[in-house]
């Protein structure tokens, strides 16, 4: 019933609220009646936002999807994902398109209700939609179900822009490059050490082979001398 009251035409808000309170008290739902009675007449911006779940449900869900994609892309950027800056740029574009489409629809709702749509009202609606798409689940559910009582507050998780995302990725990439160079240097040093060991081993093997050849020659000569003595 909260949404029904908040979505009611603004010029009938007080009457609609009073009717709802009477109906709830008649049903013995005193706590609910008190809650409805405490509702304040929404601003033009909040009233328009509460219509979104009725007039543009699909656009609203698409906006939330773009907001989720944007948050995930930013998390990837902060983790140093090189492809995340591109994903973030794409998510920002999608969010902007859905915000613009919803803002136009809600502007039409205001016009149809006889309300003037000033530039300031349009800006506040656009900002509120963007904030809600980046915000927590509770604030988003209030928007989608038409139970907003105030414009959504800025998200506690700050959203960075694409140039900053690129800078973060580049910084992380530079750190990765430096770490990679250190690993390469260490591997090259290990190769050089192994090559030196191999060279020393080859020299030792060549010396051993030379000694073997000399020993074999000495043995052959000794055997030949022995054979010559025996024949005399």
Report on the architecture of this protein.
- Among the domains are: 1-41, no CATH class; 44-160, no CATH class.
- Helix content is 79%, strand content 0%.
- The protein contains 10 helices and no strands.
- Helix 6 (57-78) crosses helix 8 (119-134).
- The chain starts with a helix and ends with a helix.
Anisotropy-based shape: rod-shaped
- The count of strands amounts to 0
Mean pLDDT across every amino acid position: 81
Q: Could you state the order of secondary-structure elements as H and E?
A: HHHHHHHHHH
Query: In terms of structural class, how would the helical and strand content be classed?
Result: mainly alpha
Radius of gyration: 40 Å
- Could you name the ranges where pLDDT drops below 50 across 5 or more consecutive residues? none
Share in helix: over 70%
The number of helical elements comes to 10
Q: First CA to last CA: what distance?
A: 132 Å
Main sheet properties: none
Strand content: under 5%
């Amino acid at each position: 019933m909260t949404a029904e009251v908040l979505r009611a035409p603004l010029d009938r808000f007080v009457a609609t609220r009073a009717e709802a309170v009477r109906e709830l008290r008649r049903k013995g739902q005193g706590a609910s009646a008190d809650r409805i009675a405490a509702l304040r007449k929404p601003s033009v911006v909040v009233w328009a936002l509460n219509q979104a779940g009725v007039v543009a449900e699909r656009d609203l869900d698409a906006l939330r999807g773009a907001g989720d994609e944007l948050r995930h892309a930013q998390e990837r950027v902060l983790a140093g994902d090189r492809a995340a800056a591109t994903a973030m740029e794409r998510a920002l574009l999608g969010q902007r398109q859905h915000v613009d489409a919803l803002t136009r629809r809600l502007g039409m709702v205001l016009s149809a209700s006889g309300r003037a749509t000033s530039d300031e009202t349009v800006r506040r609606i656009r900002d509120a939609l963007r904030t809600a798409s980046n915000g927590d689940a509770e604030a988003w559910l209030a928007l989608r179900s038409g139970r907003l009582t105030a414009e959504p507050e800025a998200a506690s998780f700050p959203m960075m822009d694409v140039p900053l995302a690129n800078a973060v990725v580049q910084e992380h990439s530079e750190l990765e490059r430096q770490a990679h160079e250190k690993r390469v240097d260490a591997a090259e040093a290990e190769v050089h050490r192994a090559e030196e060991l191999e060279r020393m081993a080859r020299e030792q093997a060549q010396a051993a082979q030379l000694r073997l050849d000399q020993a074999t020659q000495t043995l052959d000569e000794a055997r030949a001398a022995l054979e010559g003595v025996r024949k005399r």
